[in-house]
Amino acid sequence: MGSPVRNKNNGAFTIKCGLTNSGDSSSPRLVTNAVVRSKGDKATYIGHEFDRCRDFSSLHYRLPFEKGYLVDWDAQKAVWDGIFSEEVLRVNTTESSLLITEPYFNLPNLQEVYDQFVFEEYEFASYHRCSPAALIPYGNLYGSSSSAPPECMLVVDSGFSFTHVVPIMGSSIVWSAVKRLDIGGKLLTNQLKELVSFRQWNMMDETYIMSHVKETCCYVSTSYRRDMEICRENPRKNDIVQEYILPDFSANRQGHIRKAEDVGETDQILYMNNERFSVPETMFYPSDIGLQQLGLPGAIAYSISLLPNDVQGMFWANIGLIGGTTKIPGFRDRLLHELRSLAPIDVEVIIHTAADAMTEAYKSALAFARSGDFSSYVVTRAEYQESGSNASRRRFKDWKSTDNEKCPDPYPRKGKAPMQESDDERISIPTRGGRARNRTGPSGQRRR
Amino acid sequence: MPPKRGRPRRQVQVEAAAARAHIDPELIAKRTKRHLDELERSNYTESSTLFASADDEDQDRGPAARGRARQTISDKREHGRKKKSTMNIRTAVLYRKNLATLIDESGIAALPGPTYLTAAVPPPNEPPRLICSVCGYWGKYKCKKCAMPYCDLNCEAVHDETRCERRVL
Ligand SMILES: [Zn+2]
Ligand SMILES: [Zn+2]
Hints:
Chain A: Its main location: cytoplasm. The complex is a heterodimer. Chain A is of the alpha+beta class. Chain A contains 14 helices and 22 strands. Chain A has helices at 73-84, 108-121, 132-135, 185-199, 207-217, 224-233, 275-278, 281-284, 296-305, 312-316, 331-342, 360-370, 381-387, 390-395; strands spanning 5-10, 14-19, 29-32, 35-38, 43-46, 60-62, 65-66, 69-70, 97-101, 126-130, 152-158, 163-169, 172-173, 179-181, 242-245, 256-257, 269-272, 319-322, 351-352, 379-380, 420-422, 425-427. A 6-stranded mixed beta sheet of chain A has the order 3-2-1-9-10-20. In chain A, strands 11, 12, 13, 14, 18 and 19 form a 6-stranded mixed beta sheet that branches. In chain A, helix 4 (185-199) packs across helix 5 (207-217) and helix 9 crosses helix 11 (331-342). The radius of gyration of chain A is 23 Å and the shape is globular. The two termini of chain A are 14 Å apart. Chain B starts with 8 loop residues before the first helix and ends in a 6-residue tail after the last helix. Helix content of chain B is 34%, strand content 2%. In chain B, strands 1-2 form a two-stranded antiparallel ribbon. One zinc ion binds next to loops of chain B. Residues 143, 145-146, 148, 159, 164 of chain B line the site of one zinc ion.
């Protein structure tokens, strides 16, 4: 396919990026999406430069994203400039095509700024922008690449800023049933910081360290009451408590869980007792911290209840997990257990997981970008120069403000299927050839 | 199950408890909201509810907090390309807006269909579990002064000494 395609899964905290023509490698380069100041190193790191950081104490983060949306374009440009440069991807953007993700329900005014950066600043030859879940039908989350993805799937995307439940029908997102839970990895890390700072060491300044503690020690309990009793009995010695030895950056030693052979008496130990499971528990009981939202199982059941009756069973049987926060041990088991009790008795509940939930959307993006009909989904620089952001509003099929208008598409394309009205919910039917492997999809026509 | 209209049961319960303790439920709701905002910060270093310290507003904003940024970070590295950015790009880089402003300006509030503003998960039907604010175990009791739950005499003592706000705001 001639020109290389750059894939960028532009997460609020971690960017997963790579090139389609980089051989068979499907592992993205991970770049911290932040400008980070390290007091110990007396240095400021922009994006990929953070790999050079040695002293992770008291880091100050400047994140381009606020609550999941891109608001600090100065910081974002600094990080992107680095990624496109010789130091990371070494691409000539003017000859490349870009596939970039955006948050669910991205604001229309922000979508225009995405367009401006892609074409005015980096001058890409063409690009496609969509949400991470929209890429999942192209990947292998629901089975091998030889079989067509299921007609109905429910993607749970839990990342840094928030968690979304995203139903997809015939490869199109059903936006009226997409639901957001305002809990992600960032909130959980902050909650953990708060708990241990009150109970043991003041770690309020140590986001990086506490994020590592969270990743190392936390799990989702399958029996919250039982685990709570175990931890109450003897808080320093029980089957759950772990001793996390805090890092010593001056001695170049990372934090880790104490093993029997570790004896260092000067070590600073953080006891991780009920903190191990009470923090991820917030995903299941947001009201534990006063957040007035259903937990994730309830959110999934609610989303499915908004879908057409006759296909609800298919959604229950095709739940897929993506995003770093779903990687917490026990997450799937607990979710399955609770969904089982919420689902109608006669439906099957199946949860699909990826080898690495954090990079699954990236891998799906790679498959999409490599597929034959990717080129029919892009907006070209010439089209942007001619009609500005209207070009992407016309072409991209993900959420856009015009989807809300009850009047027909002001720019009807040839072959566009009519909107369907059902129970007052609008479901858009795929308008084009769609997926490379979609042989059973409702839209018979294929481009090529 | 459609989203519940009106006050969720939790709210009613908290209000009842607050009424017993003569605490304005609105103040409790405000405290909860402030705490949730803190948990969203990029550099959450000072907790107003935990250490009753003064609330310094988010320092994440950097120099671009209000109006035009005095200096930008994106021109700190050259990366070998010298290019004059368009007006659109310079505006985006120089004038930072927070999410609330961007939402206002986006016009999504006037859209009839689903948007960011309508997508939040609805509140739960069942009342919240009460968790001891000191140790994390079940919190059977509530502080008479500030309505925070605690589990036993030990935790009550710790709460009184270090954490009780004595007043809600
Ligand atoms: Zn207690
Ligand atoms: Zn109190």
